[in-house]
Amino acid sequence: MTFKSSTQKTLVALAVASSFMLSGCQSTASQAPITKTVAPSVVVTPQDTGSTAITLEQAMAHPDWLGRQPERAYWSADSSTIFYARKQQGNELRDVFSQSATSQTAEQVALSAHHTLGTKNAVYSNDKKLQAYTFEGNVFVKNVQTGAIKQVTHSSARESNLQFLNDGALVYRQGTTFNKVDLATGITSELANIKLSDKPKGVEAPATYIAKEQHKLIDYVSLMHKNKQDKQTRKEQLTKQNTSIANAQFYLGKGKTLVNAQLSPNGQAILAVIKDQKSWRDDADIMPNYIGDDGTIKAEKVRRRVADEKSAGSELIYIDLTDNSQKTISMTSLPGFDEDVLASVKTENYARDGKTYKSEKAPRDINLMMDWGWDQGAIVWNDTGDQVAVMLEAWDNKDRWLATVNVDEGKLVSQHRLHDDAWVNYTYNDFGWLNNSDTLYYLSEESGYSHIYKKPLTGKATELTKGNFVVSNLTLTDDNSAIYYKANVEHPGLYEIYKVNVESGQSEQVTNLDGMTDYQLSPDQTKLLLTHSKIMQPAELYVAPAKANTQATRLTNTVSEEFLAKKLIAPKIIAVPSSHTQQPIYAKVYYPADYVEGESGQNRKAVIFNHGAGYLQNSHMGWSGYFREFMFHSLLASEGYVVMDMDYRASKGYGRDWRTAIYRQMGTPEIQDLADGVSWMADNANVDTAAVGTYGGSYGGFMTFMALFTQPDLFQAGAALRPVTDWAHYNGPYTSNILNHPDVDPIAYERSSPIYFAEGLKNRLLINAPMVDDNVFFQDVVRVVQRMIELEKENFETAIYPVEPHGFRQPSSWLDEYRRIYKMFKETL
């Protein structure tokens, strides 16, 4: 691919180090020597800002003081105006603003007019003349050219899933019922009523001997039964012969839940997905809330743990609205549907217990793909409505299928199978149909990075993008000429917008803003609404023509003067050579305010911050969600610390192998990377390796535990915030990807859970735990504290936060937490 950009000018042509062979280092997988590929360059970042010193109190204050940036921005129906929300000062309410795409002046929209604005997920008629959306559960239709608005529903019920059919009618869902509106007449008809129950049996003939004799001997009983039969027959005749009566009830079975249902654009069929109804929790899944609003201890309901999850699958039901029939679609035609993909894992676990595992084929449970990042669904019809594609995943997380439906044979036709011996990613699963075509396009990590492919139903797939970068956020143009996408082509931490020609596969760079950029294509597809940030600049809105090498115009300027006045140290993005992989470890480094390049003596103290989520990228060139930590790191750097923020293995943005390095060994590759970070700071930033601390929250708290427990001499102090201590107690959707399930792979859980390594604690540890955390339960901390008490450990302390959830809400809690971290580093480093 070729790209035209001046961004390369922002990369300093300084290699971090010369290429060399690590003769003493070995791969954790193969245990064989590897050749070291050195990081390409250091990225130029903005200069330090402001002149007023940042204080810990200010850094942890409510973020209103930063300026209240634009949120939830979207285009108007006519592509001339931008709507967005801004938080009110001092409370959690939002105001909505309207701003012309050619103006830098915004106007607040009155509450009485909010229903006129449309929404980000509004839908459009095939001719683009009408826009439909919901506001507070009611349906509205806007004429794009005139702006005239018609309210279609006015009720306390909540309508959703709007869709224009090919005949111009509008469909919306109310619960499990599909309603069709003729916009010319205003008449609403029930298109399909999906019932999660068994079909009524009607009037049945006597079945037992006694019942049959009763009907023979007692005329009254026989007559009453005949009358019921006559009434039922007449009702069936009336419903069938009189078109004014709704007759679209479909019974999918008692004890089922409707996972998804999508109507074809021609209004002739529905593909529905159902599964057995099951609670999201068990009776014992509770969390005590000691400071309830009524003064009592409340037993809050929380989710099930991964250790308690049971395998479950789904059913696909094809509903034909033309003849009121329904058919179950078999999944047994999917390649690998019955493979024992965990055979090697089971063999290892059996062998540890002195048993022999015998591998046998058996059907696997399969469900709709649940992507954590997309706003589309896993069922997509083509424009004519004669083909439907569905994306499915195995419950064991090893396979993803993109398939179409062969209705006549009642089976799926696999169009693409993505298998991963570790786990299939729960992002980068966008897919759809080219307009007015039977060709699919989709994202896949099969090359090692997320890229765009297209595939005709009866042909081979073609890769449209290639390279060691990650593609996401696809938008197909109406004329099929291009797919817009977001990617980090020029540097893992720099995200711009590109577009690829669907026919030629030729890509062009669209934006050149040097930071983190997201986009929305305008409804008329001539402009882009951009949300852009830089390391030192929170996100603002921009608008640009939708063309290659575009020039963007800034629309908003919401950052406060108070924030701009603060003296903040801009981190430099560097590439740390790795001892365990050919890829470098990208990291932000905050150099001390008095640091002089080339200084020696190794007398600097240092801190490594561990970002949360595991699969998250923080060493990028955009504004970080960890803005409090950013200011805290600036404060530390102003006091002489070197601070490093690493995108350790498992982090997002670096491809499949980087993501899956932690498979069945969470806490091993990541801590190896932290050790490389400490070595790099000693060699390049004058850091004393005997004066380094670490901290982080959630996954970062877990990493702090693993670092202090498994490599006790690496850090002299650590703070574990809202930390995971035993992965068997965490949730299923996240954990089972990486560690399988505890009943199948206990080795992986024992290898990856800090509670099994608590005896290794040597240096000082601070544990900060919110008590009403419904993500990482307070029980995690309680169990590991008891473990350390029993191990007679002396150098740890625990701080609890009685009213806080996983993400703190009170500035006083943030301040207390970071005062403790700050104090510990001051005392120990």
From TrEMBL:
Q: Does the keyword Signal apply?
A: yes
* Domain named Peptidase S9 prolyl oligopeptidase catalytic: residues: 634-828
Please name the SUPFAM superfamilies in this protein's record.
alpha/beta-Hydrolases, DPP6 N-terminal domain-like
Ranges for the Dipeptidylpeptidase IV N-terminal domain? 379-538
The UniProt keyword set, sorted, is:
Signal
InterPro entries xrefs: 6-blade_b-propeller_TolB-like (IPR011042), AB_hydrolase_fold (IPR029058), Peptidase_S9_cat (IPR001375), Peptidase_S9B_N (IPR002469), Serine_Prot_S9B/DPPIV (IPR050278)
| Protein name in UniProt | Prolyl oligopeptidase family serine peptidase
Record's signal peptide: 1-29
Q: Which organism is it from?
A: Pseudoalteromonas neustonica
